[in-house]
Amino acid sequence: MMVDAGETEREARRQVGVLPFRRDSDGAFSVLLVTSRESRRWVIPKGWPMKGRKPYEAAAREAYEEAGLLGQVGKRPLGFYLYEKRLKSRDSVLCQVKVFPLEVRKQLKAWPEQHQRELRWFRPAEAAEAVAEPGLAAIIRGALKRKGPAKG
């Protein structure tokens, strides 16, 4: 019996990402967002898990590749969110992103994807408004209500 794919419970594919943040000279926090390559939406650096790397290490690697960021990544995730990733085939897959805090220490002048994305520092409330995914917005709001994302 054929079951329509839309009717079945789809298994979310797992991804890892970072919420890059810094404390500014006025003591307030800023969050860095990057644009996605396809739809140019504001998102966080994220990608697929990497063989031989812990999830938080893979997430930190994505921050380097997508935004030239180096810093201290937390080992405990801030939370998870779901989104629909559009594939080159025009299909989409449901992804669950595990988000780790990344305290940015340095932003490099050159990095692998610098000509494929825009990046911008936002105040947390503006970052939460700029992202399309409600789950990601909630993570941004929640993480920076405390005294900044906890580094686990």
Automatic annotation (TrEMBL):
Alphabetical list of Pfam families matching this protein: NUDIX
Keyword match Ribonucleoprotein: no
Residue ranges annotated for the Nudix hydrolase domain, each copy included: 11-144
Protein name: Nudix hydrolase domain-containing protein
PROSITE patterns assigned: NUDIX (PS51462)
InterPro entries attached to this UniProt entry: DDP-like_NUDIX (IPR047198), NUDIX_hydrolase-like_dom_sf (IPR015797), NUDIX_hydrolase_dom (IPR000086)
PANTHER family reported for this sequence: DIPHOSPHOINOSITOL POLYPHOSPHATE PHOSPHOHYDROLASE, DIPHOSPHOINOSITOL-POLYPHOSPHATE DIPHOSPHATASE
Cofactor names: Mg(2+)
Keywords annotated in UniProt: Hydrolase, Magnesium, Metal-binding
Organism: Methylobacterium trifolii
